Amino acid sequence: MESRIVFKSLGILLLFFLPISLIAQQKIVLCEDPWPPYTIGQSGYAPTGGIAVEYVTELFSRMEGVQLEMILIPWKRCLAEVEEGNIDGVILALYSEERATYMQFSNEPYFINPISLFYLKEKYPSGVQWETYNDLSPYRIGLLRGSSVPELEKAAKDNIVTLDLGKTAELNFRKLAKGRLDLVVSNNLVGNTLAKETGLEGKYGIVDRPLMVSKYYLPFSKKSPAIKLIPQMDKIIREMQAEGVMQKIIEKY
User: Fold this and answer.
1) Does 21 score more than 60 pLDDT?
2) CB-based contacts of 251: which residues, under 8 Å, 6+ apart?
3) 25, 71, 107, 253: which has the highest count of C-beta atoms within 10 A?
4) To 10 degrees, what angle do helices 230-243 and 51-61 make?
5) What are the structural domains of the chain?
């Protein structure tokens, strides 16, 4: 009995000498779909690498008392789980008014990249030019389901353009390769990666005029206590921007 009291007392004393971060770490779970080169890995598992994964890992390593976990799941499910509060946030997401109804976005984007139209050079040897969405009306355009390209989506609702919503970005590029789509929407970094992975290296072009310049954020569910981390996260993002962290990571890919 006395030995139990001694061990219990020692255990309590050890707690006083342990760093606070080891006693009570806040676990933050983030999701995304497999989206090379940002998030690399298999759906249902933790990512194995990627530009966004490396950046977010570094970001959270600079926070005290936070334990980060990441999981790759289908994109629509990821958004649904965040909306319900079952998952704390998204690794990488564009802002939209609809998403802002259930997610709190950081003030600072951590990545900026054009969203463009990809095409086959063989099909359009002179390229594709457009000034207004009416110019895109002859084309069948592939868009990832759940993406946020507001003006293009509005043009589709107004029956100006024709959109084909794909389950995955890779599937859209495979459809492009087979001629089932005329154009595919993607940000440039992801599009270049997927075009090469689907056998289109040297065979594709990117329309000069982008659809938009995208700003990517790390948003949290409004049902998650993680939203309290946003001011600290914004400060760290600014520090990492000043250090050129993102560019150093991109150069590795």
Assistant:
1) no
2) none
3) 71
4) 110
5) 18-110+218-251 (3.40.190.10), 114-214 (3.40.190.10)
